Amino acid sequence: MDLKPLQPAIDGQRVVITRELVEKYNRPGPRYTSYPTAPNWPKDFGPEDFERHLQAGNKKGSPLSLYFHIPFCEERCTFCACSVVATKRHEMAEPYLQTLLQEIDQTAGLVDKKRPVQQLHLGGGTPTYFSSAQLEKLVRHVQKYFSFSDDAEISIEIDPRVTSDEQIQTLSRLGFNRTSLGLQDFDPEVQQEAGRIQSEEETRLIMETARECGFKSVNIDLVYGLPKQTPEKFRATLKKVLDLNPDRIALFNFAYVPWMHAHQRKIDEKDLPDGWTKLRMFCEAIETFQNAGFDFIGLDHFAKRDDELSRARRNGTMYRNFQGYTTKADCDLIGMGVTSISFTGGAFAQNAKKLKTYEEKIAATGRATEHGMSLSEDDLLRQKIIHEIFCHQRLERSETFDLYFEKEIFALKPLAEDGIVQITPKEILITPLGRFFLRNVGMVFDAYLKAGDGKFSRTV
Questions:
Q1: How much is the pTM?
Q2: Which residue has better confidence, 327 or 72?
């Protein structure tokens, strides 16, 4: 095994990453798509609490981001950590759609009609498990209740293996302008181990169709750290991905958490690359994408330098939520569908996680909130701090900040000694080296995290 220090260039600056540094910081930690993280949300938060916070959002008048979860996949990939119902029984889709329409009816009645929708996203699962007619029925129902801004981002996750040209054409006609294609890796052996066989040809064809139909952003999702994956194999995948010319790339660190997702037990742990090998692949991907004209956006995202996401990062308006990095920083998020999460009026709310429970709750009351959390002033402050770390890698210091976060500033000193952060009288900066350890920096400001908490994936 090659244990020489890694020396990737980040934003034009060469950094040195040693094996010792990785071993020191590679420990379980949250990804911070939310703060506080979902395991800390209490179980006594219900539909009435969600409605109260929806009303608070109305008073504030923030624009909206809508998310709809379609949980179905024909089969479940071994690496998957999403909320999925794996079934080839497509007749399950119509009853679920009808339940979703009922939830839309109930939720829309609680939302101020003057609040524009700036973002809509269909995720899963596999949203194109729905037929073209079902997709149209869902979107037309949403459009009946909500007003969309002229520049709204309307996006969908796509599995090229099960998506037809007709579905792409329907989505384009309905106003969809962005799509993300699941890929993970092109290597046949890795695909076999991951339970996802997907050819280059079907991936290329669906991307071409999306562009021909007017999608302005066609993106690819990759995963590093999969079983049987090696730096050499992943290097070949990176070249093929660049040949496809995506607009954005999400490069996710595989979260091996078999204690949370039983289906991951199909993976033999000895087939997984270790933390050092994974980091080698990530570093090579960063340099490969940067050399091809992409910006390294944040924790795991890349965008072409003229992409609006890159511009948002440069001008300080980028945001991060459950869908990843986004330009829509000022939106309240309303999620609908099984296990969907909302953030509105200073509170998180999550729908029932089990499909049967979700459908029963919606049938009974039109509401399925199962748990959530009203954020305190301290929560909101720390949420903002962690957002700044992940999006902008910079925290402004003041006398008030220093007094409030005295313990955290002290806890950052070892990270400063290791070159991960730079502490000056006016600010705390995450260095180019520190961009590999953003989760570790965020953990310093997490008031809920307990020492030795092993329920999360490793940070590297």
A1: 0.94
A2: 72
